[in-house]
Amino acid sequence: MKTNRNVLKAVAAAVLACSAGFASAGTATQAVNVSATVSGVCKFTTGAAISLTFAAIDPSTTGNKTQTASLPFQCNTGMTTATAAVTTGGTTLTSGANTMAYALTLGAVPTGAGFAAAATNIVATGTIAQTAYQPAAAGTYTDAAVVTLTF
Fold first, then answer.
1. What is the pLDDT of residues 79-88, one digit of tens each?
2. Which of the residues 58, 60, 72, 102 has the least number of beta carbons within 10 Å of its own beta carbon?
3. How many helices (H) and strands (E) does the chain have?
4. Per-residue exposure over 65-96, b if at least 16 CB sit within 10 Å of its own CB, e if not
């Protein structure tokens, strides 16, 4: 019986010795460089044209007529290089063959708050000088101005 125990101990020791080489597997490492580029983007958030509509103008009154509209947009967080400009129109309202001069100006472009935040606004201001509306013929005058945001 003692011999069997010694044999079993010897076999167990041999198995452990052999399996020790299998239990310690080798390792290797590899560095992985990860990068992502977020493009600088600004977008107007409405697909339809924004209306800047003056109240009915009484040509017998005096003083310039002014109206504003908000142009909602979004830019990347912290983006400060965006500029806005009136690139089409913004100077003449037309009613048939009649015209009336006006000025469409834009306020400052706020710093981008990111696309997860609510849109911010550029304020567009339309001004019709008294000297433009007092001699104007009656009618509905329109212009299709375009504002371009450059970033």
1. 887 899 999 9
2. 60
3. 2, 8
4. beeeeebebbbbeebeebebebeebbeebeee
